[in-house]
Amino acid sequence: MTDVTGTAAAAAALAGVGAGLGVAVPLGAVGVLLLEEGRRGRAAAVSAACAVAFVDAAYAALATALGSRLASTAAGWEAWARTGSAVVLTAVAVRGLLGLRRPVAAAGAAGGAGASGGPGTPGGPGASGTPGGPVRAFLRFTALTAVNPTTALYFAALVTGGGGPRGGAGGAAFVAGVLAASLLWQQVVAVVGVSVGARLSPRARRLSFCVGYGLVVFYAVRTAWPR
């Protein structure tokens, strides 16, 4: 009995790893924002990555606990959830793009002294109008990931369709697998953001922020009006 239970838990954990990678690997709006966070600093990026993985695991836990009830409830509010998510993403992108205008004046007044990544440059603390700090990053990315209806619907559909266990030890193993896979991937994304940001000049870094926030706007439109 113990061997059977252990095998079932291992299978559920592997299913969770697959499900976690399935929701985490596609680079969506939150992934783009996580890359941007990595260009601002390692500590905040690592904290933000933990927040994304935490929400993924929380939705997986809800799906395993509630099963089909979550799927039916989420489906009834899908349109409103998509609209709310799109509004939040657009607000984040607009705020970030507007924030890129401020460091220009600050850097000019300082005679270019902010080129090392200080408060007045993209990538430094307070860049793009977004205050740094691991706690702020964790709370911000928890909210950004939580308002994304795709994650909740993904796990609800997966569990309802038999792609994951419902409750019990199997459900706990499944959630643990989701958390491990999502956390590993999000940390990879954060590290890539940190590595890329460290190699970019201030001008190139600012351009990368513009492109990144532009992608967030694109994803916001896709979220509001899916095909």
Description:
Helix content is 79%, strand content 0%. It has 227 residues and is mostly helical. It is globular, with a radius of gyration of 19 Å.
Topology of helices and strands:
Blueprint: H1 2-24, H2 29-40, H3 42-66, H4 68-76, H5 78-99, H6 101-109, H7 134-146, H8 149-160, H9 168-199, H10 202-224
- State Rg: 19 Å
According to DSSP, the number of beta strands is 0
- Global morphology: globular
Percent of residues in helices comes to over 70%
Q: From N to C, what is the helix and strand string?
A: HHHHHHHHHH
Q: Mean pLDDT, rounded to whole units?
A: 75
User: What count of helical segments does DSSP give?
Assistant: 10
Structural class: mainly alpha
The stretches of 5 or more residues where confidence is low (pLDDT under 50) are 104-130
Biggest sheet architecture: none
Distance between the termini: 48 Å
Strand proportion, as a percent range, falls in: under 5%
Task: Summarize this structure as a short list of keywords or feature phrases.
227 residues, mainly alpha
Brief account:
The protein has 227 residues and is mainly alpha-helical.
